[in-house]
Amino acid sequence: MKSTFLISFIFFSFAIYAQDTIPTYKKRVLETTEVDIVASYYSQDGDNAAVTGGRGTEELTDFAPSITIAIPLNADDVFTIDAGVSAYTSASSSNVDAFDGDTADPFVASSGASGSDLWANGVFSYSHSSDDRNKVWGAKVSVSSEYDYFSLGFGANYTYLFNEKNTEISANANVYLDQWTRIYPEELRFDIENETDFEDLNPLPNTNRNSYSLGLGFSQILSKNSQASLSLDLVQQEGLLSTPFHRVYFSDKPDIFVENFQLGDDIERLPDTRFKIAIGGRLNYYINETFVLRTYYRYYTDDWGIDSHTASIEVPIKLSSKFTLYPSYRFYNQTASDYFYEYNTALSTDDFYTSDYDLSKFTAHQYGLGVTYTDIFTNFKISKWGLKSIDLKFDQYSRDSGLNFFLISTGLKFVHD
């Protein structure tokens, strides 16, 4: 009897100990390391280059590969590395040094060194999820560099899910600290009449550009077929917000030409602060096993006088268990900035002026078509890496000011076995 009682007591004590010390199973946030490889080719053309005062070639090509590696540190934490480069050639940027080539002409690319460059970027982020997966917070550091600027960024984000994960609220904050190298149009760098540098006569306030942003989001599952979300983004910028090598031509100054090239009267000048507000909304609706409807709208305004509207629609079409086709359309229009002037219309008595057509009034249309291949079982493998998905997309953009571009992008996602 005593032996039976002792055995029962030991067994009962062990069961209690086991409950206290053996952890219950919880699903990992990320099961295994994932690698995304993305590359895009971009080509544009137009006749309103800001480098040459709103008149001149905007021809540009860009090749941009990037890689994202997401590494699970444990069941709750993920570390992500995102690195990319952008190699571009720009006919308009080459005309910063317009007289380095055989012909000086705003519609002909110069052979100046500024006609091509390499932009490099790296983002390192960390995220942590709570045990119940209802709370996620993260932080990131980013760094990027190009021939005329260097940028260092910091960010943090927080997401909270409740109502049985049917409702989600989120917040993110970012700070970017940019440092410019001031590069002026070739003919303005030295004032022959005063025998002094342009910068000594026309000093810019500083070479820094600091950006501070706050984003708030709300998402709600409305039914088994529909989901909606709202977003609010606030951005404050301070410092050198103009581009020093953008020329401006004044209507109250005589036009001076060398060959076919008009010498700049001044550089672009803009306020040293800018406040932006954007309010957006999404509505996604599952129609049936074949069709899904994704819609988006955003209203934007800033204290430079620009108001804009963006609306887009995408309709993924599931062709089979592995292939999805997704046509898309995006509409955009905006009012002109208070400081925008067309070519040769600004006055020298104005405090601020730019002929950058990105700040002009325009309407744009973008059409896209993409296809995705998905294999959740990763049957195709390279060593210990399984191919999970392939994306390929083509976009065509046209702006009523004359700018056009096309973009081809592709992506591969691999998971580690």
From TrEMBL:
Name used for this protein in its record: DUF3570 domain-containing protein
- The protein's superkingdom reads Bacteria
Residue span of the signal peptide, if any?
Answer: 1-18
Q: Which InterPro entries match?
A: DUF3570 (IPR021953)
Name of a matching Pfam family? DUF3570
Origin species, per record, is Patiriisocius marinus
Keywords (A to Z) from UniProt? Signal
